[in-house]
Each structure stands twice: as C-alpha cells, then as structure tokens.
Write a structure and sequence with these properties.
Blueprint lengths: L4 H5 L3 H4 L3 H13 L2 E2 H8 L3 H13 L4 E3 L2 E3 L3 H12 L4 H13 L6 E4 L3 H10 L6 E4 L2 H4 L8 E4 L3 E2 L6 E2 L1 H8 L3 E6 L3 E2 L4 E4 L2 H13 E7 L11 E5 L5 E3 L6
Parallel strand pairs: 4-5, 4-9, 5-6, 9-12, 12-14
Antiparallel strand pairs: 1-3, 2-3, 7-8, 10-11, 11-13
Helix pairs in contact: 3-5, 4-5, 7-8, 10-11
GO molecular function: DNA binding; DNA-binding transcription factor activity
Keywords: DNA-binding, Repressor, Transcription, Transcription regulation
Protein name: DeoR/GlpR family DNA-binding transcription regulator
Length: 251
C-alpha cells in the first residue's frame, strides 16, 4: 500500500495538545452544535473573556468556527480532516464502557470482524489484552492495537478512506463475501426514531453490510447519545442485530 503509517498515526497531535477546558469546549460543540460563550463561562466558572480566548485558540487550530457570542462546528472539509481525533475525546468514558462490555461478550478463540470508529477501538483495546482471536478488520488503527504474536490479525485491504484509517472499496466487499466469521462488531453514527441504524459514509456502510452478512452474529456498539439521531443512509434495522451494546446496562 502507498500510505505512510508513521505520518498517519501522528496526525492527532493538534487534538492531544488541548487544555482540559478546551477539550470540553470542543466536545460541547461536537455534541450540541452551536454553544454560547455565556453558557460556557457559567459552566466553567470563569470569565467570558477566558472562554473567548479558548474559542479563538480552537478556531485557529481549525477545530471549530467562531461566531458572535459563541462557537459552532467547522465546515465539512475541516470536519473530515479532524473528525477521528476529535470524536475520540467525545463521550470517552461511555465509549470505553461500551468497548469493555462488548469485549467481555466475545468468547475465547472466536473469529471477529471489527468495524471502524472510536468505540470499536475501545473494544479492540480490551480484546487485545487476551489471546487466541482471529481478527478481521478494515481499520488500520484497530489492527495496530493487537500484538500479532498473540492474535491472528487480518487487515482486509482496500482504498484508504479518511484519516480514521478505514479501508473501503470493491475488493473489501469481495473478500468479506468469501469469509465466515463468528461475530461482527459494528459501529454507527445514529439510530433514528424508526429504529434504523444509520451512518453518513455510503462506502463504509457497504462494508458494514458485507461484514454483517459474513457473520453468524452481529453486535451493534454505540453510546446512548446516538439514539434519536439521523444520518445519511441506513445500515440495517436495529432488529437485525443479535445484541445492542451501550454504556447502560439492560436487564
């Protein structure tokens, strides 16, 4: 493949250099959209000028847009460039809990497809602490979490489709069609009010569908913040998943 893994893995430096308060400001914008300086100042117990300086810093880094009295998300081009690193900091404890619960549900020695996304990476980090899995993934980031001496790791190669390390394309779909996998762990951007599991990138949706067809069981991994949202296109109805794993324990 023609990409540089070292450069790819170091592109999150901008996000990691934020102060704790700046990270929270960015999180509020990503989750809520437009936020006001007044509300942020009240939340943090600091002056409006202090919040304004944080917003200016974040805007100069290209992480959000300044507006009169507040801040909002960046445009589509910048969002695509920074999406993965920024999303990793949003609802991080919840994603880690989802990942831990999902990993605990996977039996030893299983063959597992791991989708792309920050919640899946949290699960992969837990699975990587165990041995004997046969891992299939279309995520470079996820693959690099595993020790190949402890688990068999198969990266299903295709076209690099964004800074999140996802691989898509016809060759990925064809390879998945030839596989029989025990469990597919699938991520999403939204679950709408009609119980449709949805995402924005149609190329990635095609990969998710193929992985689900290749698996004996499909598990949906998502935080409860994804519910009640909508996205561009449907992956599958929620009933298509044998298990839906969130940070909230269900009886």
């Amino acid at each position: 493949m023609g990409y540089n893994l070292h450069n790819f893995m170091t592109n999150t430096q901008t996000i990691e250099n934020l102060s704790p308060r700046q990270a929270v400001v960015l999180s509020r914008v990503l989750v809520s959209g437009f936020v006001t300086i007044e509300a942020l100042a009240e939340e943090f117990g600091v002056s409006a000028q202090t919040v304004r300086r944080d917003i200016i810093t974040l805007a100069e880094k290209g992480l959000l847009q300044r507006f009169h009295g507040g801040a909002g998300p960046v445009g589509p081009a910048e969002a695509a460039r920074l999406d993965h690193a920024a999303k990793r900091e949003v609802a991080k404890p919840e994603k880690q809990l989802v990942g831990a619960r999902a990993a605990a549900s996977i039996p030893d020695g299983a063959s597992v497809f791991l989708d792309v996304g920050t919640t899946i990476e949290c699960c992969a980090a837990r699975l990587a602490q165990r041995v004997g899995f046969r891992i299939f993934t279309t995520s470079i980031r996820t693959a690099l979490l595993f020790d190949p001496e402890a688990n068999e790791v198969n990266v299903i190669g295709g076209r690099l489709s964004g800074k999140d390390g996802s691989l898509t394309g016809e060759e990925v779909i064809l390879r998945l069609c030839d596989l029989q996998i025990d469990v597919a762990l699938i991520a999403c951007s939204a679950v709408d009010d009609a119980d449709r599991v949805m995402d924005f990138n149609t190329s990635k949706i095609a990969v998710k569908k193929a992985a689900m067809n290749a698996a004996s069981a499909s598990y949906l991994l998502c935080t409860t913040s994804k519910f009640g949202r909508t996205a561009l296109s449907t992956i599958a109805p929620i009933s298509r998943f044998q298990s839906v794993i969130t940070e909230v324990e269900t009886s």
